[in-house]
Write a structure and sequence with these properties.
The structure is a homodimer of 228-residue chains. With 228 residues, chain A is mainly beta. Chain A has three helices and 13 strands. Chain A starts with a strand and ends with a strand.
Chain lengths: 228, 228
């Protein structure tokens, strides 16, 4: 048997994450953010998702398209640990791993049939960049996947969150469907690790808008939101 | 960007499942069955698993080596639904899918360092055939992976289990480490769907032994266990 395994793209995700900056570190964090999954022409078959709507959550297996490197490093520095502590790559969900496979559990919101695109899945809570290729979709099966006694390892230390201040007028520059999602994304404090200059203005692309903010202590203040 | 994604084998699993017959339909069912994960030479680096032992469960991403087909079918017949009901392939964890990727959550029992094999992981509850290639190992992260409100779809109907009758003398033909694991595997009723002849003798290879059994109603009786 050959040692390599070639995967074929089955679908692509479409959402407001038009750049890596701002994407939550795991799935399920920006619960209000909706994404659409569009199958490749070969897989636009309504039968292929029969009974999928009876599950509330699904797994996406995808590729970190911006993480391809020629070499692999046995350790990585999780940004949420401050960026200077090294952890084994297999103890993390870092994109920089021997095979840049992403695994995300998302909420299945709806399945609609489009006469051109076939079945289109709408999911909530995805942490995938817009345009990411998907290689498999599986149901979340509680009796196999729900481990209520699981220990959280170093991720117990990861909970950096902040309070978001954003005027109603600014927030309403966004379409309604993106407003809560933006607040959830910002509450995770998307700054790179170890940056604590309260005067620095960060700019994030989000769903066709440019969002500017500052962070002081644990308060994130949105300064501007404008169309890109 | 190319539409295909080539994965490199990083490790291989070793366990008592020497044939597909008898492998539980999901991970976590044969909790007593231990498997060992042996990294490929390039990945035998102790640092790569640093802090992994602080997690209790891990994900394995692997390949269904006996499920490669030239064509994909949009529907499959889950054996536990009786074998005559068709469900969309993406609503199942069937091996026969566009990309034969397996996803299993297993319990991490220990990590030991071997001077030739590097870090060797011992895991419990795997549903992988002996020798299956593994492409990624990730920690199970409760805040992202634990969905306590998840709906179980058609798998709610899958719970066929049986009572196992096996004499102590027969069971003790097996090494101690395989005894409970065999009982767990048999309790799942490994027969193919829709077989109900109480006189039929089934034979299953398990850890170098040949196990013979019959099933009448919901009682599975072990007839013989012998070294292969």
């Amino acid at each position: 048997m050959s040692d390599s395994f070639e995967l074929k793209k089955i679908a692509t995700i479409e959402n407001a994450f038009t750049e890596n900056f701002g994407i939550p570190r795991q799935s399920g964090i920006a619960e209000s953010l909706l994404s659409r999954i569009i199958f490749e022409p070969e897989f636009r078959r309504e039968e292929a998702v029969r009974e999928l709507a009876d599950f509330s959550h699904i797994w996406l297996i995808w590729k970190f398209t911006e993480a391809e490197r020629d070499n692999w490093s046995p350790t990585v520095r999780p940004p949420r640990l401050g960026g200077n502590k090294r952890v084994g790559v297999f103890a993390t969900r870092s994109p920089f791993r021997p095979n840049p496979i992403g695994l995300s559990c998302v909420k299945l919101v709806s399945i609609e049939y489009d006469k051109n695109k076939g079945p289109v899945l709408t999911v909530a809570g995805a942490d995938l960049l817009n345009g990411t290729p998907i290689y498999d979709i599986k149901p979340y099966i509680p009796y196999a996947d729900l481990k209520t006694d699981a220990k959280e390892g170093f991720t117990a230390l990861e909970k950096r969150r902040c309070e978001v201040v954003c005027s109603k007028a600014l927030l309403e520059v966004l379409p309604f469907s993106l407003q809560n999602a933006l607040l959830e994304v910002l509450a995770e404090d998307p700054r790179p690790a170890y940056q604590s200059n309260p005067d620095r203005v960060y700019k994030m692309s989000f769903g066709g808008f440019r969002v500017s903010f500052k962070v002081e202590d644990t308060t994130l203040s949105v300064i501007n939101i404008e169309k890109e």
